[in-house]
Specification:
The protein is mostly helical and 85 residues long. It has one domain (2-65). Helix content is 62%, strand content 0%. The protein has three helices and no strands. The longest helix has 24 residues, at 2-25.
Amino acid sequence: MMQKSAELLSALAAVIDETKAHIHRMDDLTLQALAANLPPKAPAGTAEMLMLLLVFREAECRERRNLGAKVLNFPQLGGLTISPR
């Protein structure tokens, strides 16, 4: 049982890493479109929530790389606004 759990967790980690790499390769417009199509209030622990987090982390990384320049214009999400720091 423990071995099967470890195998499944390893497979999940590999899929998450592949998804991160795919998001990283997206151009700004594609990333923005993906963010606009994700549910703004995804339940915790769901694939949608994970995707939303990965997309926003990538957007933040791009903003930092561009010295705070606003790279992506994300819509307001449940009372939160994404803006450069």
